[in-house]
């Protein structure tokens, strides 16, 4: 059974009557928490250890005090340890906004449970959770912790994680990159014979308590609670500057675009290898943290707003350092409209500390601005074909060090980049497609111009006659 947007809309409608009592964000978190409860409590009686099952909760829908005596009891009972995570599902920041004792709150929770029960068995709860995140990202409040799945798949595909890799997301949001990296390994590699062997070691950090909680639930629903090296770190990644203590094989990051980094820390105590980023823009603070988090042979991909590719001042100086150190492998322009919560155009920056000899002192530029499928007004998505073309182009370039296709990609030397003052926007480097003229176009154009000229001659003759007639009448 496939989860649909309609089912997510039904969940949202169930709580719609509480809009005056709860913030939009709290309603979203409550829905996600109840989806999580749907899975973890849908077990046999002997596996509950005395905790109420989902079946029991559903059986109490028509009873009194459903919110306080049934739902809250279930949330408290199913709080606790899940692998590396410790979850408090009875979160007062969410449930504390419910008007307990009110008819609307009671009925809303009942409706929510009924809809969840109709969605299907708990085995699809992970899909439902992801669909909820995608739906909520259409609101500005949800977009900050969710990257669209097509973009995530493209970024993970560029990294090609393999069993045994350490994968780190310094701004992990809802955990989508870590989940997709695990999914990629499961799809492309056989599971080790020793089931206790962890195929990937997953690391995540996010300064926001709410988003860490969402990420933990998402990872647990996907069965990754034991693949995460430890509970998600609550520290700010930027506080660690260019040289965090831990190093990883792969870093995947979609940091907040153009945030003020010195709002979060005192820049005097943070070191940056390529120089401090502007106070009002942390884009290259994130880039330097990502590079500093890589092992000697590591690789990374980061999503940045287009402006990072060409802005001047300190950012131009940092780009020059990245180019001269030869850690930049590729810059990929994405099509507009991929992100429902922002219209800012973006590029993928691919970094490598293990460039092959044939790709050294070269950077691949891919201009994918015009690909993608229109899904609604102002919204596009990368198709499987688009994704494969981007990944295959980069993989081929990594193996051969050359790629050139007008309108799509081009290999550029470091000298060429320096000649344009370290402007790294792909459209600056990828030549547009020049249409081949049709052999008959020249002859047709001559005929058209000849006919147009004869027309001008005729008009000139008419004006001459009128002028002569006018002069004769004087």
TrEMBL record:
Its EC number is 2.1.1.72. GO terms for molecular function: methyltransferase activity. Pfam families: N6_Mtase. It catalyses: a 2'-deoxyadenosine in DNA + S-adenosyl-L-methionine = an N(6)-methyl-2'-deoxyadenosine in DNA + S-adenosyl-L-homocysteine + H(+). Keywords: Methyltransferase, Restriction system, S-adenosyl-L-methionine, Transferase. It is an enzyme of class 2 (transferase). It comes from the Bacteria. One of its GO terms (biological process) is methylation. Residues 126-432 form the DNA methylase adenine-specific domain. SUPFAM superfamilies: S-adenosyl-L-methionine-dependent methyltransferases. PROSITE patterns: N6_MTASE. This is site-specific DNA-methyltransferase (adenine-specific). It comes from Streptomyces xantholiticus.
